[in-house]
Amino acid sequence: MSSTDGPAEPYDPAEPYGRGETDGPLEAGGTAGAGPEERLARLGGSWTWLLGSAVGTLVPGVLVLVWPDGTLHVLAVLIGLYLLVTGGFRFVAAFAREHGDRHTGLFVAVLYILAGVLCLRHPLQTIAALSLITGAVWLVTGLLTGWAALAAKGMPHRGFVLGVSALGVVAGVIVLALPSESAVALTRLLGLWLVLLGVAELVLALVRRSAVGRARSGAGPHPAPV
């Protein structure tokens, strides 16, 4: 799509990772003459960016599950890196939102990044600290995503987005409620929830890709929001 078609369509606030009019930032003519903010908006709204976020969640989840007997330091590093990477993805994706909704996305991104830094700090690498930090991030993010989805009553796939937000809320509550003494149980639970959340993001990315494909085949001028 040419960048001369006018301003991007309003972003649906219930979409967790933004919206874009192309399938990637490097599509021919998609970013020609665009400013840094518009480039970030196109990048953050592409389905490939959402796919990258899903991979960034799945990989540490799989590693935690296949290596449940790893040391607490290794677990803290994996969780910390996951939070930092996800925060980076969400920071860029926030630019695909309307200015009024962008602040929420940026807040979530900063929350992930701060939580990742805390997990990597040696004095906080305890079972209780990891469960508190990770559970709180998932709980807050799930609540914000669910609230945004409820506010956007006409959004396609709204039920699925609500389901993903509910998954995050449940993950946060369970991790926060888990006894801090159970290191093995916490490790397996964190890995399981990372995989489940990563799969949910992967499905969102595929839905987004399908919408882009329908738009390119002439079904409409813009892909429907995920």
List keywords for this structure.
globular; 7 helices; single chain; disordered C terminus; mainly alpha; disordered N terminus; 226 residues
What does this structure look like?
Residues 1-33 are annotated as: Disordered. This is HdeD family acid-resistance protein. Pfam families: DUF308. It comes from Streptomyces thermocoprophilus. InterPro entries: Acid_resist_chaperone_HdeD (IPR052712), DUF308_memb (IPR005325). This protein is mainly alpha-helical and 226 residues long. The protein has one domain (36-216). It has seven helices and no strands. It has helices at 36-44, 47-66, 72-93, 99-120, 127-151, 158-177, 183-216. Helix 2 packs antiparallel against helix 7 (183-216) and helix 3 (72-93) runs antiparallel to helix 4 (99-120). The longest helix is centred in the last third of the chain and has 34 residues, at 183-216. The chain is globular. The model is unreliable at 1-31 and 219-226 (pLDDT under 50).
